[in-house]
Write a structure and sequence with these properties.
about 250 residues; alpha/beta; Rossmann fold; 8 helices; about 45% helix
């Protein structure tokens, strides 16, 4: 039986990279996207191949809907040349940016950037790739703990993630006839370079968030990549339309 193939957006760094490596360790091949850091993406490819899996890196700007058709063509070409396949199995909509701005100071440009990447991009990229997703496949979208609890400065970002959680349920409903399960993972505070690396690099912020987390620390990339890989495993095939928060118990 041929290996499963996952497409992971934003797979050159952070949670996307970690997810790619967790999936590779479980025997899944990977097509990952990167925005600008090709060298980092190629380094991830080398790590995946070191685990004995096949992988390809493709450029993608998830804010540019007009280019999604070309990207789908590149995915199709990679599937045919590398795997002799017409379709892939898993889509992980991970790519994203962080914008921290008080509601009263959030600009229209910031709002539009977040909308284009975190909601509009996810909506139309998933739509564009639907013909390439195998029946019985899976989709995992990324939300945030900030869609449940509220911290000042994230009104626009968290609103987009709330929209993604609603979209996830609708996708699960409408793709049900194709047996495609769709879930959303909502990380809490994670030590990555996301949003300028504040959680990782600011000791005061790190300690404050850890003190509000039941398990007593902020998260690490391994805490999230493993959850996403587990959701895509055969054992979780009956989990559908669910919001899975992986936050160690923040603000409970």
């Amino acid at each position: 039986m041929s290996a499963k193939i996952a497409v992971i957006t934003g797979g050159s760094r952070g949670l996307g990279k970690n997810t790619a490596l967790h999936l590779a360790a479980k025997g899944v091949d990977v097509i990952l996207t990167y925005h600008s850091k090709q060298a980092e993406a190629e380094a991830v490819i080398a790590e995946i191949e070191g685990l004995g899996r096949h992988a390809v890196a493709l450029p993608l700007d998830t804010a540019k809907v007009a280019r999604f058709g070309d990207f789908a063509g590149a995915v199709k070409a990679a599937l045919q040349s590398r795997w002799q396949r017409e379709q892939f199995d898993f889509l992980v909509n991970n790519a994203g940016i962080g914008v921290n701005a008080p509601f009263a100071e959030t600009t229209e440009a910031q709002f539009d950037q977040l909308m284009n990447i975190h909601f509009k991009g996810v909506f139309f990229l998933t739509q564009t790739l639907l013909p390439l997703i195998a029946d019985g496949g899976r989709i995992v979208n990324l939300s945030s703990g900030l869609a449940r609890f509220s911290l000042p400065g994230f009104s626009a970002y968290a609103s987009m993630k709330g929209a993604i959680e609603v979209l996830t349920r609708y996708l699960a409903k409408e793709l049900g006839p194709r047996r495609i399960a769709v879930n959303v993972v909502a990380p809490g505070a994670i030590e990555t370079d996301f949003g300028g690396g504040t959680v990782r690099d600011n000791a005061q912020v790190n300690a404050l968030l850890a003190s509000q987390t039941a398990l007593g620390r902020v998260g690490l990339p391994d805490d999230i990549g493993g959850v996403i890989a587990a959701l895509l495993a055969d054992d979780c095939g009956w989990v559908n339309a669910q919001r899975i928060e992986a936050s160690g118990g923040m603000f409970i």
